[in-house]
From TrEMBL, chains A, B:
Gene3D superfamilies: Clc chloride channel. This is Chloride channel protein. It is a multi-pass membrane protein. One of its GO terms (cellular component) is plant-type vacuole membrane. It holds the Pfam family Voltage_CLC. It comes from Musa troglodytarum (fe'i banana). Residues 1-22 are annotated as: Disordered. Keywords: CBS domain, Chloride, Chloride channel, Ion channel, Ion transport, Membrane, Repeat, Transmembrane, Transmembrane helix, Transport.
């Protein structure tokens, strides 16, 4: 906390002012209409004004932020003035077309993931149970564990070598991007590829993980790919694609993608819209409600169409359209080890429980052999079933369906439910750490449903309610306690079960579990955002920020440029060439923000010595009306401005009205503060 | 557009700067930490700087706006610094308690409205049908029309004499309040009283109107009453009540009230939350989602409990818990005339259609006499029913239920559906103009359902789908086209019908009807807000606002006060007494905003001549860090600030950095612009 440290911090925070993308840098600065050509565009305060209190926590965040502010410069003004009606129409039409494309693509990916998982996993179950019917138990286990281990190795190899960013749920990453954090690999095409195939292999491998988180990430990646504004490499350079070269439109597209992902994973279109609003998005406009609604409706229609097509038997052995899915050598070994553990649990634990006779009225459905169903035979004598095998030796989807099924009281023994709950809970926790795309919804629902069914069985003699309802409420309570979502979990569960009479119960359970959870910590996605080191900006300022002034935490000293500056030049004389000249030479799209990872770096610019002696007129491209605050404003109040308006920089003006020096408060600075 | 006109406009706009509430006036001005005691708190630009373009549309809005800005003055800072943990806990607890109370009260009101309507209307139908069974048709009509006319007169008399603001739906009023428009009678206790009883009488009178709009208004009124911060008149002056003396907390409470209203009207708790978000609120925080969710859950529980209680026959003849409910002598005559017209249609039109034989398989349910049901006898021979009477001579709830009922294809003739559609459509339009509390949902659903059923009957030979489904889709299309809501209408319809399989159809129909409607005009509530003259501030700036600068439309000349000013005084000397003195004399609650209509008026202040010569120190109570923009900022960008942050005033600083003169841009000014 000595002076040396404070100097270092201040110097290192120069980087906070938009290094890398030159155009947004130049255009965010402050200027006056009739400013002289050699006046600096921005005057900084002389001396170190950063107070000693402020320096303590000033760990400026190294990740760049997205910028949602409208840069009002001459080019921008001329651009919208010259926009014709058909261009505006084209822009609006394009937004809807992209929403349609996102819905179509996400629906297709969701459907094919389901289909692939069901066919791979179904084939695995079939082979294993055939061997077991022939009493070749050791071979059966070897085959079962071998299949699982190979699939797990394939999934984690994809993750480890191709796209490490694709591991895990993906919801924290999407949440971070929508909070304005621009970490490039989050939404890269390689991430998309690994997310899809890693998820298929991971879920087929029988891990206790789900496919909803990865589907959300997949939807966001698809949207981001569409929003890149074309690609020079692949000759996709149509003019209309370029309309989306700004962070605001990309943010909207990716919000639609996240909603489409949930809609595809759960076949819950309304749930998708509400998830995007409640959990994923940091900025939301009512127009987005309408657009995400359209996207998820498209997803729902695509899924229905394909499932209808599959009913006629065109989709392989097992294509029924289910509910669910889920680091270099060490990472792969880790995944294989967890896979073996999961295989042992799935195959080994059912040997521990006794066989149960089938209920006499449903002997046609009980027991089931080889295929999915409520009553798995697993080594039992005829007309008996093994209730633990019905849960463990099944896809996660089928296990959940079995737990939720109504009218089947006493199907599962108390001991079975305790073993399954403990097993799934522990496996879920260790599985989430491995390097494959993995969702959290399914493990949480599995654990919650078995817990709820356990409570229902224990209370059975008193409550006389259906045990399937208890399982559902258990799942709701675990979801509410883990993710702290209310409306969207409610709608997703309703859309899954198609039963609205349970709504008040689900609401009550969610309220209680969220309230209890909130007493201890934040939701799981918020914690993961923090653990992954994303500098998330909360909607509300921390209490201590009221004690700080905006002037206390500004970045400085600033780099300043005069109105007409030396550089790769246009004229040999230092005169303002005026807006007309610049407008003739440049197109607004030259200043549009490039897609992720595609911007021109400062180091890549090729400026020769002669050019270094020429002058460039910056006046027409600077932002004439940036947002400003007085340095006496509390940091809490300034933080509200950043969050509500999606700013990246804020000019801090001094309290004495006579001087005209400025400081800059960057959102990176603020994010650093919030991480303390 | 001559200079005289421009001067007038500028002078009249002085009123825009918060007349009436002295404390917010003084505290919104600009100040500097070390400002001298006789320096003006705000320097205004000399001369008329309002440009000629800007004057054209400068019709400053006369209605005051609410202010959601945090006023950072010494008193405020001292207040939160001194807040203890138990006080913060008390504040949070209180918010939830109020949410609970709103839910309880709105649920109760909703239930008792239903009960009253069902008993009054049921008794009326019973008397009428008894007379008709005795073939005394003229007496039956006289009784029917007489009952309706008296109820109509009662409803409109209440409205005309007690609370004219209670007429109509109430949703536009709530929407306007939540947009920051402070028109006092909107949420007054008298409005609440008339809304409840006017609605009961109006719906009982058989008008083609619904009770959901009035329920939304009722919920908002209840919330507003709770948020008044107690009442000195009724000795309700507990300290904890005073925490809510600011516009932000009141806004949140009233949003909860609006959600509770929808939840009570439709028994659709999720629909209520989404309605509040999608249609009612202009400012929303994710914390509100959680709070409205709680409130509507309480409403759902209250309604279920009471309906359960009523099943045991404790609630009069007709208490089944239905779906629905709806100016001086001329206003009353108008209402009575429409009532007679409605009576004539209801009683007269069924004479025009032929009797239909009952379907042979449900002879126990068909025909029904006197009570509600699908098959009304109405003068037909035994085992026959009159299908038009089944729609017209019924409560609106029952008519909708009949239209939605599945498995009843061919129950209604095409001619019947055409007559009913035309009748309801025209009656709905003329009814909405009368002075009784009236909702729009029910007429729209009635017209849409009969239209949908008509289409279904026409397409019957081709589609082979259930006509009840067509009725539902017709209702969805009319709702989407009228109100332009998507997600909330979807959820409300799902919660009404308890059938999730129709979701993709409903989504598709809503998308189409909203898109078609949006090509022509805005939604009905937006149009009503405009017709009622509320200066609604849209989320998006109009395109022409990009052509204007913030400096073009400022209010001026400003009234300025020096740091220490003459007035009802504290000291005889013109010295700054400092914050400590002021903090000793005043409590933060002395500067809290009073409840609607309760603030101290400037004219009511009693200042004698001696006091006029004394000095008052304004420095500790002025806002030290108001939001500011440069005068070159486009009006569109400034409007975003107003809307996102809920501001009432914005300081406009001049472009030349050397001067320190300021202007004020008020939200009233901006609202005036948006009305052009």
């Amino acid at each position: 906390m000595d002076h040396r440290e404070s100097d270092e911090v201040v110097e290192s925070s120069v980087g906070g002012v938009a290094p890398g993308d030159m155009e947004s840098n130049a255009s965010s600065f402050f200027d006056d209409e009739e400013m002289g050509i050699s006046d600096p565009l921005l005057r900084w305060q002389t001396g170190n004004t950063t107070s000693q209190i402020a320096v303590v926590g000033a760990n400026v965040c190294p990740i760049e932020s997205l910028d949602y502010e409208v840069v009002e410069n001459d080019i921008y003004k001329e651009d919208w003035r010259s926009r014709k009606k058909h261009q505006i129409f084209q822009y609006v039409l394009l937004k809807w077309t992209f929403a349609l494309l996102i819905g179509l693509a996400t629906g297709l990916v969701g459907f094919f993931s389901n289909l692939a998982v069901e066919n791979i996993a179904g084939f695995k179950w079939l082979l294993t149970s055939n061997l077991m019917l022939k009493h070749r138990y050791h071979e059966a286990f070897a085959l079962f564990a071998g299949c699982n281990a190979s699939l797990a190795a394939a999934a984690s190899a994809l993750c480890a070598y191709l796209a490490p960013a694709a591991a895990g749920s993906g919801i924290p990453e999407v949440k971070a991007y929508l909070n304005g954090i621009d970490a490039h690999p989050i939404l890269a095409p390689s991430t998309l590829f690994v997310k899809i195939f890693g998820c298929i292999f991971g879920v087929s491998a029988g891990f206790v993980l789900g496919k909803e988180g990865p589907m959300v990430h997949t939807g966001a990646c698809i949207a981001s790919l569409l929003g890149q504004g074309g690609s020079r490499k692949y000759q996709l350079t149509w003019t209309w694609l370029r309309y989306f070269k700004n962070d605001r439109d990309r943010r909207d597209l990716i919000t639609c993608g996240a909603a489409a992902g949930v809609a595809a994973a759960f076949r819950a279109p309304l749930g998708g819209v509400l998830f995007a609003y409640e959990e994923a998005a940091s900025w939301w406009r009512s127009a987005l409600l309408w657009r995400t609604f359209f996207t998820t409706a498209v997803v729902a229609v695509v899924l229905r169409t394909f499932i209808y097509f599959c009913r006629s038997g065109n989709c392989g052995l097992f294509g029924k359209g289910g509910l669910i899915m889920r680091g270099v050598p060490f990472k792969i070994l880790h995944a294989v080890a967890i896979s073996l553990l999961t295989s042992c649990c799935s195959y080994g634990l059912p040997w521990l429980v006794k066989c149960t006779p089938c209920p006499p009225d449903i002997l046609d459905q009980c027991p089931t052999i080889g295929r999915s169903g409520n009553y798995k035979n697993f080594l039992c004598p005829p007309n008996h079933y093994n209730d633990l095998a019905s849960l463990f030796l099944n896809t996660n989807d089928d296990a959940i369906r079995n737990l939720f099924s109504g009218g089947t009281n006493n199907e599962f023994h108390i001991s079975t439910l305790i073993i399954f709950f403990a097993g799934v809970y522990c496996l879920g926790i260790v599985t989430y750490g491995i390097a494959v795309p993995s969702g959290l919804f399914i493990p949480v629902i599995l654990a919650g449903a078995s817990y709820g069914r356990l409570v229902g069985t224990l209370l059975g003699p008193i409550s006389k309610l259906d045990e399937g309802l208890f399982a559902l409420l258990g799942a709701a309570s675990f979801l509410g306690g883990t993710m702290r979502m209310t409306v969207s979990v409610c709608v997703i569960l309703l859309e899954l079960t198609n039963d609205l009479m349970i709504l008040p119960f689900v609401m009550l359970v969610l309220l209680i579990s969220k309230t209890v959870g909130d007493c201890f910590n934040k939701g799981v996605y918020d914690q993961m955002v923090k653990m992954k080191g994303f500098p998330f900006m909360e909607a509300h300022a921390e209490p201590y920020m009221r004690n700080l002034k905006a002037g206390d935490v500004v970045s400085g000293p600033l780099m300043t440029l005069a109105g007409v500056e030396k550089g790769k030049g246009f004229t040999k004389e230092r005169v303002s060439t005026g807006a007309a000249d610049v407008l003739r030479r440049f197109d607004p799209f030259d200043f549009a923000k490039a897609g992720s990872g595609k911007g021109v770096k400062l180091e890549e610019l090729d400026i020769d010595d002669a050019e270094m002696e020429m002058y460039v007129d910056l006046l027409p491209i600077v932002n004439r009306s940036p947002y400003t605050v007085k340095e006496t404003m509390s940091l809490a109040k300034a933080a509200v401005l950043f969050r509500e308006l999606g700013l990246r920089h804020l000019c801090v003006v001094p309290k004495s009205p006579g001087t005209s020096a400025f400081d800059i408060l960057t959102v990176e600075n603020l994010r650093g503060w919030m991480r303390i």
